[in-house]
């Protein structure tokens, strides 16, 4: 009888140790998810900053263009030269914007996929540990009934 009680006591202590280990693992995984979320927030902040910067440069460009057009209307110069090179700043700005938006979208997608995978891992681990805990509780209650 004493051996049986000792055996149940050892099993109970093992289950407590497993539960503690599972809780520690959960805390570590939660930290990883929090880190991924903070990375996502930082990347969203960078996207917003770059968008604001792009808007600023666009308004600055428009103001300078308006000022230059005003200066050009006051100047009357006859110039006959064939200059086929045209600098299309609108397309350059559009390209830069598309490039930075692409980078931001990729970063956002990567952060979201990392967050989703970590979250799924946490859910799976929590489910396993919950099932294991339920079975341990059931076993302990059965053992208590038999005692």
3D structure, described in words:
- By secondary structure, the protein is an all-alpha fold.
- The chain has one domain (2-62, 89-146).
- Helices cover 89% and strands 0% of the residues.
- The protein contains two helices and no strands.
- Helix 1 (2-74) runs antiparallel to helix 2.
- It starts with a helix and ends with a helix.
Largest sheet: none
Order of helices and strands: HH
What count of helical segments does DSSP give? 2
How would you describe the shape? Answer: rod-shaped
Unreliable stretches covering 5 or more consecutive residues: none
Residues in helix, %: over 70%
Q: N- to C-terminal separation?
A: 9 Å
**What portion of the residues fall into strands of 2 or more residues?**
under 5%
**Count of beta strands:** 0
Cα-atom radius of gyration: 33 Å
List the domain count as a whole number: 1
Quick check: average pLDDT? 89
**Helix/strand structural class:** mainly alpha
Family: Belongs to the intermediate filament family.
Biased composition (Basic and acidic residues): 129-147
GO cellular component, one term: keratin filament
Protein name: IF rod domain-containing protein
């Amino acid at each position: 009888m004493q051996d049986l009680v000792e055996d149940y006591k050892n099993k109970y202590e093992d289950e407590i140790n497993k539960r503690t280990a599972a809780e520690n693992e959960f805390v570590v995984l939660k930290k990883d998810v929090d880190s991924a979320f903070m990375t996502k927030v930082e990347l969203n902040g960078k996207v917003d900053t770059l968008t604001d910067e792009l808007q600023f440069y666009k308004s600055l460009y428009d103001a300078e263009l308006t000022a230059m057009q005003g200066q050009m209307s006051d100047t009357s110069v006859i110039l006959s030269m064939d200059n086929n090179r045209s600098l299309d700043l609108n397309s350059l700005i559009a390209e830069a914007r598309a490039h930075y938006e692409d980078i931001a979208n990729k970063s956002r997608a990567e952060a979201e996929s990392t967050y989703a995978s970590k979250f799924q891992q946490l859910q799976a681990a929590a489910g396993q540990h919950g099932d294991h805990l339920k079975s341990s509780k059931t076993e302990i209650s059965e053992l208590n009934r038999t005692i």
